[in-house]
Amino acid sequence: NLTHNDLELEGAAAIARTLRTSPHCGLAVLSLQRNRIPADAADHIATAIAANSTLTSLDLRCNPFDAAAI
Questions:
Q1: Which one has a higher pLDDT value, 7 or 43?
Q2: Which residues share a beta bridge with 59?
Q3: What confidence score (pLDDT) does residue 23 get?
Q4: Using CB atoms within 10 A as the burial measure, which of 22, 27, 45, 54 is most buried?
Q5: What's the pLDDT tens digit per position in 18-30?
Q6: Which residues neighbour 9 within 8 Å (Cβ) at sequence distance 6 or greater?
Q7: Among 13, 47, 51, 53, which residue's Cα sits nearest to residue 32?
Q8: For residues 67 and 42, which has the higher predicted lDDT (pLDDT)?
């Protein structure tokens, strides 16, 4: 649970890289609520989870983008 850590662009990009480069990492649930993640970083996360086979739940609520942005 990484909720409310102000990860912003840099932190979200690091998470996306990890999810993309470790597709079998065993992480099933990830909460990134209230982290000021911008739409461009959310797009990177979306691309990364497409390559990840273990993540089943991702919570991006209360970040400054809407679903149409990704």
A1: 7
A2: 31
A3: 86
A4: 45
A5: 999 998 889 999 9
A6: 37, 38, 40, 41
A7: 13
A8: 42
Amino acid letter at 66? D
pLDDT for 15: 93
**What does the DSSP 8-state code read for residue 28?**
-
Reference 37, options 20, 62, 1; nearest CA is 62
Dig out the tokens for 32 from the structure.
């990134």
C-alpha distance from residue 34 to each of 2, 46, 52, 68 (Å): 9, 17, 23, 18
- Token readout for 64 is 């400054």
Q: SS in 3 state form for 32-69?
A: CCCCCCCHHHHHHHHHHHHHCCCCCEEECCCCCCCHHH
Q: What are phi and psi of 16, to 5 degrees?
A: -60, -45
